[in-house]
Design brief:
Radius of gyration: 35 Å
Strand order of the largest sheet: 6-7-9-8
Number of domains: 2
Organism: Micromonospora matsumotoense
Protein name: 4-amino-4-deoxy-L-arabinose transferase
Helix content: 40-55%
Largest sheet: 4 strands, mixed
Keywords: Membrane, Transmembrane, Transmembrane helix
Length: 646
Amino acid sequence: MTAVTADQAGTTTDHAGKSRTWKDRLTRRRAGKDEAGKGRGDEPAGGETEQQEPAAEADPWTSFAPAPEPVPGRPGRAARATGRFLVHEWTLAVLASLALAVGMTWPTLRYPLYTLPQDYWDPSLQAWQMAWSGHALRTNPGQLFQSNTFFPEPWSFAFSDMLLGYAPAGLLGTGPDAAVLRYNIMFVLAHAMATFGAYVLARQLGAGRIGAAVAGVSYTYAPWLLAQAGHLHIISNGGIPLALAMLARGHGWSLRHGYRPERRRVGWAYAGWAVAAWQLSLGFGIGLVFAYVLAVTLLVSAAVWFWQRRRRGRRPFGRRLFVADLVGGLLFAAVGALLAVPYFKVAELHPNAERTIGDIGVYSPPASGFFTAPAESRIWGGLHEGARATLPWHPEMTLLPGFVLYALAAGGLFFSVWRLRHRLWMLAGVLVTMVLAMGTRFFDGTFTYAPLFEYLPGFNGLRTPGRMMLWTTLLLALLAAGAVSAFAQRVRELSTERVPARPSPWLRAATLLPLLLVVVEGLNTTPHPVVPEQPAAMRTVDGPLLVLPSSQNQDQPVMLWSTSRFPQVVNGGSGFTPKQLDDVRRVTAAFPDQTSVDYLRTLGVRNVVVLRDQIVGTPWEVTVNAPVDQLGITRQQVGNAVVFRL
């Protein structure tokens, strides 16, 4: 039995330091327990059970105590979890990005079944790409790269960036209307993802909420990107900052706080590599440079890992994180290699698709392009009309990221939450990417762009160096985020000195002013033309077929029209024109005649569709009604088109 001591008041204290009165001990004994807490109320041998005394009376003062908080049931717990999710920062950021994307791209979703942003040429091509990838996955995935266009060319799906990452969306719906609707939805979502990705990256690196919002908006709605509204593969860049943010979070690293091992999360590292691989699958137009950036980052990280292990005898990132980077890097490289195979096939079959350094010079912008806005800018478009007239190819040479962004980034060099060395590294990155964006305009690119073009695999396939401005914009956005975050932090410090300690309405408005200015400078006047209506013949005539007239711009809507049944069509528009399609356009200039009919039969073409509303002023306006009996073909009027059956 535990030893105890007693005081004069009848209170005993055991060696555990617990005080007990004689009433407590008596109550415990009556309950069949000794002072050590061991049971003493065993059942007697005769089977009789000792009668238990009634429990001690409850303390009457407990009536004045607050009622215990009720334990929520399963519905209550679910409601609380849902509420926490809805007010979480990332949820609000997603919703804000979506709402802003709808407003900033308006009227894209006003008539989403009938219009396309900027024009109906390249967007029609990209709408067809998503439709074809979904159709191929649903019917015959092995023939994904052997598309129904450019008949009879093989590997025709790889004639331009494929947007393969959007293939799951292509599984939903069929026909041109569904393809146009799908394109418009993905167009808006691409803007939302870019805003969210840049916001998350700035937050992970250590920026405040307002600063991160400025980074997200300025990265997505920079004026120069308004000229790229017809290029979904360029607009779809949100995976770049999002992947970088996930990788940084997985490694427990931020620009403001450095490396924090306790914040490492292997799952985020895997997710970052998966998002990076998905971004690459959208196209090499911007994905190739992203791949090289990741490769350099991975090599530097590996060098640090081995150096720290050898010098200090420890692994700075940990074995699991090292394995995650190794597996993720191999996944990313495998996706890139598999996607590169069809492009190598195309380069082998079509030498005319290869670009020269002279081609790069045609699209290389001068330094004035960094201060010139495209015509689609609501604020600067009209004011910069004269400056655009001096640019040889202004759609790819108006590279203004925003005067507000320039000012905020310049302020961020002197007043920022980032360390000075980080600001200097960002400034160096801005200058380097600007020089590369000038292509051959910067001292002929001899020591800048030309070596990359000659020696880095894949760089000779990039036609427009001005798209390097994407990285310039991201770095400027991070510099701006540092400045705005420092300003907001200073406002909070001033607020604590006030009585009461809260910011004045004017200070609150001042913190939001940079965000408002960036939004205003990103407003656009992008046209949304109505897509040409699909001819009835495209829904009934079998392939292989040729649609006349045929040209780069006219063939892209034909590709969209073919999404009803995906017949094989000779028509096609892409980054280059195959020699055979050039021959078809040249030979069929006098169609229908014996030479063109024989040539088309040799290719395997069975039907020719001539669109009456597009042949005004062309030779076909006369020949479409010429006698065809001696040619061995038939003619039939289908809607507003004439169908010749060979």
